Amino acid sequence: MIAVIIARLAADMITMIIPGLTANMVAMIVTGLTANVIAVIVTGLTTHVIAMIVTRLSMVAAATSV
User: Fold this and answer.
1) 17-57 per-position pLDDT tens digit
2) Fewest CB within a 10 Å sphere: which of 20, 44, 52, 64?
3) How far is CA 60 from the centre of its chain?
4) How far apart (Å, rounded) are the C-alpha atoms in residues 60 and 52?
5) What angle do CA 3, 8, 11 make, to 5 degrees?
6) DSSP symbol at 1
7) How far, in Å, CA of 63 to CA of 51, rounded?
């Protein structure tokens, strides 16, 4: 009896833990990927915008200096 109960509990625990862990892992991976992607996009856009502004300013400066 006790062995059966323990086996049942262990099986229940495992079946409960595995989906929970998987869900947590997936949630963590998705969140991590999303954060990384957003960071990459923001960084890329920022550097791109800064480069464009600098290029524009230098072009304007060159045009005005002439």
Assistant:
1) 888 889 999 999 999 999 999 999 999 999 999 999 999 99
2) 64
3) 39
4) 12
5) 125
6) -
7) 18
